[in-house]
Design a protein that fits this description.
single chain, alpha+beta, ten-stranded mixed sheet, five-stranded antiparallel sheet, 15 strands, globular
């Protein structure tokens, strides 16, 4: 540890500790969800409870292996009518209690026989604390939410953290090539050097874990409090201690750090000591051919993904766009030495004309150190690419959904109630003098096959006979008047995802697991505001959990008073259409907060990586700057040279990062909303570009200023 650079140690430690903190926090959310098993009360007396809460889809791979995926039923499923009778015939059963969704069974030695009957009927048998999940559907929903947040988002974060930690640790080892070469020169074997690097990296990982694990506990507690305050989960929901999550986070981070250090030091430990000493004095003339090949292949993959994103539609286009983002950033990381070298040659005349002699020195440094500055370029592109695409995507989703609702609701008023409205409310309200049209909206969800699995899709059920006076879904093909009990209307995005066309017979499952085959009667544009699937109310009758409508959309001729209608249903109220859209905006903002929190972690970590990398790169130049000062270059000229280098490097990073962000955001927004040009908040790009510029300047100027305040002889004499 004595020979480690203080700046590199701190920067690497920060990157590792932050990685442990984020991974542990995400892992604790998953662990908390998996460990949540509330004690049963209603079914405490039963030995086993049979219910239909999930549905399993099976499919075969290309090699013939069978895979399965289990999804929760949004509306809860119904049990077969003859199942209770079969269960009564099981030896040892002493009591069977039937309920509109569960069968509670009591007896001795009955669990396995009842479980077999449940499996044969395609339903589930619950024992132990799993029975409590049936009594607390909100707890089960929270459990699924935490697993989904930590699992899906954690996957993206893991890739990002691996990328950042590998780059930071690799740069730290690269800056120690002189030390490693000297060790080789005094008879240290390659194996000894590699073991030393492994030990140092592992020690740094352990120290980072000591800092990162408590920070992860604090971060998890803060996230829990924020989620509870915004209604995403009950405040009493128990969070696990995160022991498993902490162990996994520490193990992964230490492993990545060790592997990155070994890869970075492979050149110095693989060649003869004399060659190692010779190589550290100058930048290698060429980067590896393997890196170039992989970089070009990754770039080709990114271009292919962009083709799918632009030409495709629906989920396929969205997946292609997100894959494009990661592939382009990875391609930049691999091709960064060549990008830097090309940009340096291109910018040489500009830098010389702008900064004079300092610009000439800056251009020479950029050309000579193109490989050394590769990590800096990658970190800047990463922060700009993520900040300019993923962050602004949420703005476009909110804007698109609010626009859809504002343009699509033709009604003047809406009747709402906390517990929903009875089916007869629509007909009774329509009979009021002055009421022109009433459309009942019932929110639900359906399950559709996607590739080899399935997914839950938001849906609404309406009466198409009155919809023309209250709703405008932006139908582009077909007609809502053709919406019957055996047909559906779907959004443009869902039609593209499933490759559905007008007149196609398609299969799906209602929210309670009932399979249906329906015809596509219409395709509409405003899916963000109204859901991807629209059904006839007759289709979902008897297949929803409550059997009640969520709201009534009401159009009137003369603004007639609707208070008497609302008075019939306790707790109901009349709101204006604008107020209804305002509530939607509030709900969207609530969900957007969670998305922005998760996205902010990614963007913030990318920015941290950029700052760390630039500080390490700046501090590694002490010998170079000392030599320049000893041969007569003034401090002012050195500062101007650094400014010119940063201007060139930052300019390249911004151009590349903005291009990647713009392409990704355009492809995603086009696939989701159909808009050819994404919406950018007025100060959006100013914030991203200005933040990246400020970050680059602060992370470089402050360390360089510190180096210039020390005598050049002091730095020239250091072994680092």
């Amino acid at each position: 540890m004595k020979n480690l650079r203080a700046g590199s140690v701190i920067a690497t430690l920060v990157a590792l500790a932050a990685g442990v903190m984020i991974l542990m926090s995400m892992g604790t959310l998953v662990e908390s969800g998996l460990r949540y098993h509330p004690e049963p009360h209603k079914y405490a007396h039963a030995d086993v409870v049979v219910a239909h809460q999930n549905i399993t889809f099976t499919s075969k791979d290309f090699d013939g292996e069978t895979t399965s995926e289990t999804l929760p039923l949004p509306e809860g499923g119904r049990l077969p009518a003859d199942l209770a009778g079969k269960i009564r015939g099981v030896p040892g059963v002493t009591a069977v209690e039937e309920e509109p969704d569960a069968i509670a069974v009591t007896g001795a030695g009955i669990v396995e026989p009842v479980r077999r009957l449940a499996k044969e009927a395609g339903v589930e048998a619950y024992t132990g604390n799993d029975r409590g999940l049936l009594e607390q559907p909100e707890g089960a929903a929270t459990r699924s939410l935490l697993i989904q947040i930590g699992g899906s988002f954690g996957g993206y974060v893991v890739l990002l953290i691996i990328f950042v930690v590998a780059g930071t640790v690799g740069l730290s080892v690269r800056h120690r090539r002189r030390d490693l070469a000297l060790l080789r020169a005094v008879a240290a074997t390659p194996g000894q050097v590699r073991r030393m690097i492994v030990a140092e990296s592992a020690l740094l990982g352990v120290v980072a874990s000591v800092l990162g694990v408590p920070a992860g506990v604090f971060a998890t507690g803060w996230v829990h409090d924020q989620l509870a305050a915004r209604g995403f989960l009950p405040s009493s929901f128990p969070m696990s201690h995160g022991v498993v999550a902490a162990a996994a986070a520490v193990g992964l981070t230490v492993l990545v750090a060790v592997c990155a250090a070994l890869i970075a030091a492979r050149r110095v430990t693989a060649i003869r000591p004399a060659e190692a000493l010779g190589e550290i004095s100058i930048e290698p003339a060429r980067s590896g051919k393997v890196r170039l090949v992989f970089g070009l292949l990754t770039l080709a993959g990114a271009v292919t993904a962009s083709t799918f994103a632009v030409s495709g539609s629906g989920e396929a286009a969205l997946t292609g766009a997100l894959g494009m983002l990661y592939l382009f950033v990875l391609a930049v990381a691999l091709l960064a030495p060549w990008i830097n070298a090309f940009a340096a040659r291109l910018l040489t005349p500009v830098l010389r004309a702008t900064f004079g002699t300092s610009g000439y020195l800056a251009a020479a440094n950029l050309r000579a150190n193109s490989k050394g500055m590769a990590t800096v370029l990658t970190a800047l592109v990463l922060s700009v690419g993520f900040g300019g695409s993923v962050w602004f995507l949420q703005n476009n989703l909110e804007r698109g959904a609010a626009h859809d609702r504002a343009e699509g609701v033709l009604a003047d008023f809406a009747m709402v109630a906390p517990g929903g409205l009875p089916p007869a409310a629509a007909e009774q309200t329509a009979a009021i003098p002055g009421v022109r049209a009433v459309t009942a909206i019932r929110r639900t969800a359906v399950l559709v096959k996607v590739f080899d699995g399935a997914e839950q899709v938001e849906a609404q059920a309406i009466d198409p006979r009155s919809a023309s006076g209250t709703l405008d879904l932006g139908v582009r093909e077909g007609s809502l008047q053709d919406l019957t009990s055996t047909s559906i209307a779907v959004s443009r995005m869902r039609a593209g995802t499933q490759n559905w066309k007008i007149g196609d017979e398609v299969g799906l499952w209602l929210g309670d697991g009932t399979p249906i085959t329906v015809r596509v009667a219409a395709i509409y544009d405003r899916g963000l505001g109204f859901g991807d699937v629209t059904l006839n109310r007759e289709t979902v009758a008897g297949h929803t959990r409550t059997g009640r409508d969520d709201q009534l959309l009401i159009s009137t001729d003369d603004g007639s008073s609707l208070a008497p209608a609302a008075a019939r249903y306790p707790g109901s109220s009349i709101v204006s259409a604008a107020g209804l859209n305002g509530k939607l905006a509030k709900d969207l903002a609530l969900g957007a907060w969670l998305n922005r929190l998760l996205i902010g972690v990614m963007v913030g970590y990318a920015a941290l990586a950029a700052a760390n990398t630039m500080i390490m790169a700046a501090l590694a130049r002490r010998r170079e700057l000392s030599l320049l000062r000893l041969v007569g270059v003034t401090r002012r000229q050195i500062k101007n040279m650094v400014h010119a280098e940063q201007a060139g490097l930052l300019g390249v990073a911004l151009v590349v990062g903005v291009a990647i962000a713009g392409a990704t955001l355009t492809a995603v927004v086009h696939s989701l909303t159909g808009d050819p040009v994404p919406y950018i908040p007025p100060l959006g790009w100013v914030t991203v570009l200005g933040g990246a510029t400020l970050l680059a300047l602060v992370a470089t100027i402050l360390p360089i200023g510190r180096l210039l305040r020390v005598s050049p002889l002091e730095h020239l004499g250091t072994k680092e």
